[in-house]
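S.,

As promised, the coenzyme A run. Input:
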Amino acid sequence: MSELRLTNLTEELAPQCAALELAAFPHADPSELLGVEDIRAYARTFPEGFFVVLDGDRVVGQGAGIFLDFDFEHPQHTISEITGEHQCGNHNPEGAWYYGTDMATHPDYRRRGIGHMLYEARKDFVRRNNKRGIIAGGHMPGFAAHRHQMSTAEYMEKVRNGVLYDPTLSFQMENGFRIVTLLKGYLSDEITGGDSALIVWDNPDFAAAAAC
Ligand SMILES: CC(C)(COP(=O)(O)OP(=O)(O)OC[C@H]1O[C@@H](n2cnc3c(N)ncnc32)[C@H](O)[C@@H]1OP(=O)(O)O)[C@@H](O)C(=O)NCCC(=O)NCCS
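Predicted complex:
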């Protein structure tokens, strides 16, 4: 493995990024994953929010997101309705939050700190843009081993309390995220029935504009 390098999305990387999606989310409905055309649209809309990790010329990790406003009084939503066309159509440069639309490390490259590197890049980006923080729908792939014993809500609580370990949700908590609530039917997923955890990282440096 050569030196890992962090960069931003370009249209040329789109086919590789789409292939990484399929490799990273084997249980997802491919129509809900980012395809080549979606990623090309992302590259034209908001490449600054789409981080890519390269090993030489090979895409081995990616973390994408858009700016938007979020109503915590009504948190229920699905991935497609909140992100819009090509999962970036609802990008609003003035939005208060960075909404994470995608996070994936190639299975051959996991547990080497690539996910952490991507989260650090996102946090740095959010700080530089003085946004309130990061919001995402966190997958719970580890639910597969517990689906006959408990509900997704019970599973999420056990992960939150550290009783159970989930390869995705526990990793996000390790990266400073808090679990807000369960998102019912967030996406198509044969393991969880689509349920995901709404997770938030609060930017400690956020400064609200002074009132005039
Ligand atoms: C979730 C995901 C992005 C994490 O990516 P990753 O590159 O493996 O992340 P990291 O290497 O930074 O961290 C993963 C774990 O490896 C550990 N780790 C990191 N470097 C390590 C090293 N050198 N040696 C041993 N462990 C290491 C981390 O501490 C972390 O442990 P934790 O889960 O207990 O916190 C990846 O598993 C993935 O793509 N999953 C499928 C898609 C998915 O669910 N995406 C998230 C959608 S919400």
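Strands lie at 4-8, 51-55, 58-68, 97-105, 133-138, 178-183, 196-202. The chain has a mean pLDDT of 94.

- D.
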